[in-house]
Amino acid sequence: MSIFVDENTKVVYQGLTGSQGRYYGMLNRDYGTQVVAGTNPKKAGTDVEGVPIFASVADAVEATGANVSCVFIPAAGVRSAVLEAAEGGVELIVVITEGVPMHDEAFFFNKLKTDYPGVRLLGPNCPGLISPGKANIGITAGHIAKEGGPVGIVSRSGTLTYQALYELKQKDIGCTTCVGIGGDPVPGTSFIDCLAAFEEDPETEAVMMIGEIGGSAEEEAAEFIAANVSKPVVAYIAGLTAPPGKKMGHAGAIVSGGKGTAQAKMDALAAAGVRIGQSPSEAGDIMDEVVAAL
Amino acid sequence: MDLFEYQGKQFFASYGMPVSPGEAVTTVHDAVAAAERLGTPVMVKAQVHTGGRGKAGGVKFAADIDAVRTHASNILGLDIRGHIVENLWIEKASDIAEEYYVSFTLDRSAKKHLGMLSAEGGVEIETVAEETPDAIAKIWVDPVDGLTEDQCRQWVLAANLNPDVTDQTVELLLKLYEAYTSGDADLVEINPLIVTPEGKVHVLDAKVTLDGNAGFRHDLAPFDATQPRDEREAAAHAKGLQYVGLEGSVGVIANGAGLAMSTVDVVNQVGGKPANFLDIGGGANADVMSGALEVINNDPDVQSIFINIFGGITRGEEVANGIIEAMNRVNIASPIVIRLDGTNADEGRALLEPHLSDRLMMAPTMLEAAREAVALAEGAAS
After folding, report:
1. What is the pTM of this model?
2. Chain A residues 55-94 with a CB less than 8 Å from chain B
3. Between 20 and 30 A from B148 (CA), which of A221, B197, B347, B370?
4. Residue range A185-207: average pLDDT?
């Protein structure tokens, strides 16, 4: 089993005709993902290396049965792309695009919650998600992940997500699903959403969580873990030594007013029974012990 | 990006909010000329991207032109929490009967906009929040529904403001919310929002942070030019690199914000001090790598360089070729330690092998590379 996506997932790419969308869409297809459609109102009826292009997500869903959309549209168009995908009838919208204005994110997050409660949003500004051996949607390098289980991964940071997948593969540990939730201020899917899904998934027996400074998502996850997660969780938090008031690359990664420090997050998680690695490698070593003891 | 007070007021004025007439100046001479045009008394206010101006002596009342001259010359060049004052805002002075506080920002936990309103303005809101949290009336606004006049009226009531100015305040709050949303601000704050002895509601200070991501629908250039940056940050910014200057001697280059942050942590963990945070993004081709090395190379404090790359989509041999080519283009003053891992890391390492020397080293793990880079930096310093 896996969470959110599997071998039956059919994906429509909004922006498949653009350079990024085409590049990663084809990589995803090579991985084995069912890449069934692309959209571009000006190029409907054409194709990208055999993948048909439709005028809208609704058309693509009707013709191909696509149930997930992956968005590679430039930031200015993301708000309408997300609303179009929700209206079009997909169950999951994965937004890879970075640089989406905060007010757009806040708007479509709440719009989906109210008007399309059955639709899950992942991102913006995230690497996407991969259920190794089944489906890879987004920009994760598929071959650095070992298929199977028993570990599920949820991460706020792109390269550290890959690092985590790679650490596990080196130790011959498989991954059920790896979800990159992204580092923006209003992430569509939270740590808690993923932890809840991993808790429900019978094949996921342990969870690796990678957080970073800023906000209080890790602290909220810690509370959730203490109350609801029976499976072992191992965490790494980046930014222990980041100076306050400086944005460290991600819009969300900033320590402001003494809040959102890595230490506070580590303390909250440790208090919830989560084992903390001081570096990504150490987190990998701890997970190795956890998996051996399962 | 943070706006100066006077830019924030211009921003608010463009949404129809009442602000005082004033002029932005950079010299004592211009300050006096502005005060003569405006008519005394005026306020002489330091324009810096930090709080605590009043306590630092950066905000003064000037009853006459002589006082303007004195205050302007004292405040220009003043160091306020590490910010040197280069700009002044000369503003027609206002009489104050009451001081309120109001702001809008995103509540990341609730994923809704949070409005805060208080009858206890004029002091730091953190102090009010700590000492008398009940004095702050909060409202959560769903971005889809927006803020209604009825909600505003309830909110003003909850904040216990002077009932005589309810209508004016409601009108101002609606305009402020409009400025916050339509203007793509991350934060709008007025402290204090005043009531004059004549009973007029008036904006006396402005703190505005605009969302740099919304540049495609607003002209942010005038504000971007005023952002304070050290020279290293300006150079990196020009090359499109994500760079944050730090105080140490180990230059850091990594791909991805999380990995770059993690690299800074590991350097600290082994007892070193990073000179910077530098994220070169997902790829690592020769152009990007050369640019990054140039930026680091121009930092005189750097004694060693730690390049930490994890190949994902980008393959190890591309990364290695990028580094080799960049080293041919840029004459690097400090020794480099590389940690290369991920996709095709072995192929990448094999390419680097013939170029290894006491100027270019390779380490198998992040931790070992950090130790090596820190030892080199310390060796150079002693």
Report:
1. 0.92
2. 75-76
3. B197
4. 97
